[in-house]
Amino acid sequence: MAYVETETATHFMRIRPMDNLHQLSATALQAKLTAGEITSVDIVESCLARIERYNSRLHCLLSIRPRMQLVAHATSLDAERRARPYALRSKLHGIPIILKDVFVTGPELGMPTTVGAAVFAGMTAKRSAPLVDRLQEAGMIILGKANMTEFCGFKSNLIKSGWSTCGGQTNSPYRRRDLVEDDQPITAGSSSGSAVAVAAGLAPLSLGNETSAALVYPASVCGVYAYKCGYKTVPMEGVFCISDSFDCVGPIARDPADIVALAEILEQEPSFSVAIASKDGGPRQEFRGLNVGVVASTWGVHESLIAGKWGDARVIKEYENAVFKMRNRGGRVVYPLQAPEPDSIRYDGETLISTSYGEFSDKIKEFIQSFEYAGIKDLKDVIAWNHAHASTALPFPYDTQSELVAAVNSKMRPEMLQNIIPHLRHLAGKNGMSEIMRRSGDLDIVLSSSECQLVTYAAAAGWPCATVPLGNWRKNGQPYGMFALSKDGSEEILLRFVTAWGKVFDCAAEASAGQRFRHSTNSPPTLPSVLTANAVKMETALKSWELDNNIKLIDPKRDALYQYDAEAQKAAQNARPWTADPNYFKHVRISAVALIKMTMHARSGGNLEIMGLMQGYTEGDTFVVTDAFRLPVEGTETRVNAQGEANEYIVEYLDLCRAQGRQENVVGWYHSHPGYGCWLSGIDVETEAMQQQYQDPFLAVVVDPDRTISAGKVDIGAFRTYPASHKADATGADGFQAVPLDKAAEFGAHSSRYYSLEVSHFKSSLDTHLLELLWHKYWVQTLSQNPLLTNRDFANKQMLDLASKIREATAGIRRNRGSQMLVMGGGGGAGKAGDKAMQKLSSEASMIAAKEKAGLLATGVKASLFNDLGDQDRT
């Protein structure tokens, strides 16, 4: 489940995005709130619009709080602001935040807590974590839960950073189309989604956690700020942890002022900002009073990164330029600082990682107790559950759980941990980096590259640490930065350093700054070009699809189509004019949203028939279909059957719709005919007749997904059956259709029992936004493909079927001619029948050829519009 939206689709239609709010920091948003220029509701809706537009490609969010809850919460906070403008809950009153999916959220928030793992997806939390309550008490709005590396990277050593079973692969907003996969910017982990969401402007703030680097590293590769609070400075109950001795949480933001404001809430230290302001050195002296040690750019960096990024002359120059700027702005800087490598933090052969394995089993058992009992008690149960549900929990290629197994098999006992951990703290802190800082002139801060093991010192010692952005690597545009740590209890000093950094480096407009994200409120970040470029191409593809299918935008005043008139429908039911005229209904108007959902469903079934229902109402002789939903039924290649569970599903679905204000009734059913056209089989006729008998007015719609893609437009038909007493002319189905030979007999056998309705499509102003969402998620990937390539099997089957028909028709003509010789005058009618058969075959061959020609033309057009294949060929 890559993305959980907990409300019905109609709520997407009420988005009223505010221009550029996503570009502003939380501090800037608060200023606008105070000035009365915007409301918290405006901010929430802007965030939701951004999420709905981009999360389908970034995969950075796992779940979103229900929209009605969000709007209600924001509205109440706006009311508090109006009533008590000088008594706000905090500096972040009315500001949305995204939480990494390690923070337990209670049922009242409408979001699961999964840690990215399928095993937790169905569990119900008993209550929210105290830290979540603390954020809400401060007036913050919990917007959603972020994707992450599953189990914080402790599931398997094969899993890629940012990937989880529940959310798939989190993608960097810096990805580029001109790069191969191995060269693409990474997201790092495990707080991948939290960092990406902030960098892409989906929310101004997020919260993550780490044992070592899992918070600050993802932030650094996304070009944003992050701060890990000091050990035990915030409550960790209800937070998924690997280690009880090293884990802590912290904020991610695009502006240092936001980091400080959220740190004050998390650590309940409201004086941070006041203390920082009192020690401000003023213009061009931002670092005055700070003693900073900077290790060499390659210190603690893996050799593969030294050969790449950190050996790059431009990166080294930017790194050393940072030293110069800090000195030039009043700081005392020791460079290069001499420090022992982090692998020296080892006691009796044990390290921070090995001790974490020893603590993990107890921590996950503690975490499981945050949920109502669901048959899972401990890590062994988790491993067993994953094995039992391997297709879901262990999908290829991430089909192992080696780290979980290693943790459950750890030989480290509590008494061993009690002995080892204090020694590790001493080696990293008092006898390690603390001593280096003392001997180097009582340093306040130690700085390193953002891909080194300085964070190991911070984790083992229990010190706070942070990351600050520095530049972008020219190879792929990947941001990089610097890690910073300060001593235990010196959180204020570290936050002061981060604040000074933001003032100096965000104002330094170097020649290369155009390639960087700019994070000040005067020059806010823009979404990376890969997303905006794709959005333009998707918009072009969407308009092409609407044109192909003649989808018309109705007059905005007709948006009342979505306002169900119960009295009018009741009056129509009482009058029942369709009982007097079996051809009473003549038209079907299908919304673009319903059309695309039905076609997506039909395509997903492949060669198997699928089935779903349509919601809407009748208006005179017209069915108006406003929405459609699939049914959980089993299909075959020739039929689809709705079982008892499907009926229960229908009742439950409609009850949920009505609870959300959706009063439309079911007005029909739809199903697919993969590759054999839109008409009703004998079973279809019986099904429709039964539905018309018991819940008329009712409609049958058939979609052919294969012909849809082959033709570039939706192949769809709408039908109603005649009552049993009606005698219709046996004229056959309307229009010429090329029906496979094995379906030909059935095609004509029942055509007198039903008639077709005229189908048209509309797009209201209300469903335009939802259509764009569905389009971005699916259809551009389908219609941007070559129809001749994606439907080769269908085209081949058409040709083979045509050949079979020609052989049979030819044999029939020979037989008829023989009959004419034996019985004088007996073959005249047969000869005419043979001519008619050959005429139909000629029409069918012409139609196949026309579709192939259209496919060739579409190839060129779509290559130019969607895939830039024309440009690639020229190069």
UniProtKB/TrEMBL annotation:
Signal peptide: none annotated. PROSITE patterns: MPN. GO terms for biological process: protein deneddylation; proteolysis. InterPro entries: Amidase_dom (IPR023631), AS_sf (IPR036928), CSN5_C (IPR040961), JAMM/MPN+_dom (IPR000555), MPN (IPR037518). GO terms for cellular component: COP9 signalosome. CDD domains: MPN_RPN11_CSN5 (cd08069). GO terms for molecular function: metal ion binding; metallopeptidase activity. Residues 588-725 form the MPN domain. Keywords: Hydrolase, Metal-binding, Metalloprotease, Protease, Signalosome, Zinc. Component of the COP9 signalosome (CSN) complex. Belongs to the peptidase M67A family. CSN5 subfamily. This is COP9 signalosome complex subunit 5. It comes from Cordyceps confragosa (Lecanicillium lecanii).
